[in-house]
Each structure stands twice: as structure tokens, then as C-alpha cells.
Amino acid sequence: GPYIQMVSDVADEINARQPARVTVAGHSLGGAVANLFGSFIANSTIRSNVTTDVVTFGAPQVGTPTDRQT
Question: Considering the entire predicted model, what is its pTM?
């Protein structure tokens, strides 16, 4: 689906460009996606030394209570 394609495309760009920092932002449902995707980047093997910032506006909570504590 579209989310999987976005993850693949952004992962390719991160690996190609080798940035020191990645900022993911979104509003409303896009904010929920930004939270999930920021967590994915921070906890994946895309690039272990990239700093990940997530900025959201009006986003619903995502994940389980355990996920939100980490």
C-alpha cells in the first residue's frame, strides 16, 4: 500500500543522502503517520546514527500504552 511505498522511498533517500538529522512532520491523520514513521526510523536499521525529530499538530494518539512510554 501507500505507507509501505513511502517507507521504502524515504529509506532509500536516507541511505542515499546520509543526513545527520531527519524531521518528520504532520497534522491530524498525517501527524499519526508521522509518529509511526518517526518511531520506525529511530528504531530501524535504515541508518543507526541519524537523529530523528517528530513534529505533529492535532494528531491522535497512536500505538498501545506501552508504545507511548518509549
Answer: 0.75
